[in-house]
Specification:
Elements (H helix, E strand, L loop, with lengths): L11 E12 L2 E7 L16 E8 L3 E8 L11 E5 L5 H9 L5 E4 L15 E6 L3 H14 L4 E7 L8 H10 L4 E7 H4 L4 H8 L6 E5 L2 H13 L7 E4 L19 H5 L2 E7 L2 E7 L5 H7 L17 E6 L2 E3 L7 H5 L2 E3 L3 E3 L3 E5 L1
Parallel strand pairs: 7-8, 7-10, 8-9, 10-11, 12-18
Antiparallel strand pairs: 1-2, 1-6, 2-5, 3-4, 3-6, 12-13, 14-16, 14-18, 15-17
Helix pairs in contact: 5-6
Length: 351
């Protein structure tokens, strides 16, 4: 493959150190960390993801998000795991074409699917390739935390269990804290809500983190609610294919006098610092924060990844797309910064 030139001021080019065959249809890509002077560090939190730029003969490229299966506390190199999907261009291209030594362009680690407290008891729930961010959280919690961890993992069959050997090793090492429950469709059928409810009820004080196919996630939401889990203790990761190109730098065209005259004012708390900004009503929160030179968390800019989720403390906004949020999130005051535009004159936002 030819050397790659970054297409975005935010992106970095990584070299593939190793390609690991996990199962018949799942492959892990292990990346070398940049070593050149001035290269940004690959700092990430357990449960976050990378956005990869994948070549395409039809469109030039497509962007796909893949969770980091590595842990920042136990793995020397970041790793994403890709599972082939039927007619999935990105996953099939990566599994068929990437070899050790190849380069690939990525955006910085992103996502909010990460435990705020690794010492809290956790119920980790995964199906199929949804195990990737869960594995990152699992390894981080066992290494840095002290509380019990329950890991429920559903697959079609034993042959489909990604990271099977690594899970056995972790269970042996942390047998006093880690409980692993496998659910195999070939043996037990599809997970049933009633069975899941009974299984999860003893852990209603845990924080639940889940990732997997839509029907599996729907069953988990119902089962966790029936088992008595408060909404704020349930965290879900959902990915959809991106239609736009997050590797394009945002438009920084100068605003008209009319646009600035009617701007709202907003106080944004980011990483403990409060910033006072003018917020034109035609722009999103991510737009104005980037224009102010702030390191705002975002990735897809389509409302699908949830990386720019934040809380409205005061004021109101409208959103073109609420894709990554459910109604309970919205009722709790969460918004997506890449979709939000002000509808009140004064706002207070917290990241």
């Amino acid at each position: 493959m030819s050397p790659i030139t970054p297409h975005s001021a935010r992106s970095v080019v990584l070299t593939v150190a190793e390609v690991v065959s996990e199962t018949a249809d799942a492959t892990s890509l292990v990346f070398e960390l940049p070593t050149s002077d001035g290269a940004p560090p690959m700092d990430y939190k357990p449960g976050q993801f990378l956005t990869l730029r994948i070549p395409s003969d039809q469109t030039g490229s497509v962007a796909r998000c893949y969770s980091l299966a590595s842990s920042p506390f136990t793995d020397d190199k970041p790793k994403v795991t890709v599972k082939r999907t039927t007619d999935g261009y990105g996953s099939n291209w990566l599994c068929d074409n990437i070899s050790a030594g190849d380069e690939i362009e990525v955006l910085p680690p992103s996502g909010v699917f990460t435990p705020p407290d690794l010492d809290a008891p956790l119920l980790l729930l995964a199906a199929g390739s949804g195990v990737t961010p869960i594995m990152s959280i699992l390894k981080a919690a066992l290494e840095k935390g002290s509380a019990p961890v329950v890991f429920f993992y559903a697959n079609r069959s034993q042959d489909d269990v990604i990271f099977a050997e690594e899970l056995r090793t972790l269970h042996e090492r942390y047998d006093d804290r880690l409980t692993v429950v496998h659910w195999l469709e070939s043996v037990q059928g599809l997970p049933r809500v009633s069975a899941l409810t009974a299984l999860f009820r003893p852990y209603a004080a845990h924080h639940a983190f889940m990732c997997g196919p839509g029907p599996f996630m729907d069953a988990l939401h119902t089962a966790l609610a029936d088992a008595g889990f408060p909404h704020k203790q349930v965290h879900a990761e959902v990915f959809t294919s991106l239609s736009g190109d997050p590797f394009d730098d945002p438009d920084t065209a100068e605003l008209t006098e009319e646009q600035t005259a009617d701007a709202a004012s907003v106080s944004v708390e980011l990483d403990g610092t409060v910033h006072e900004l003018s917020w034109p009503r035609s722009q999103t929160l991510v737009d104005i924060m980037m224009a102010a030179g702030l390191d705002v968390p975002y990735s897809c800019r389509e409302g699908e990844c949830g990386s720019c989720a934040c809380t409205v403390v005061d004021g109101t906004v409208e959103m073109e797309n609420v894709g990554a949020l459910d109604q309970e999130d919205i009722d709790d005051g969460y918004i997506l910064g890449c979709q939000a535009r002000p509808t009140s004159d004064h706002l207070t936002i917290e990241f």
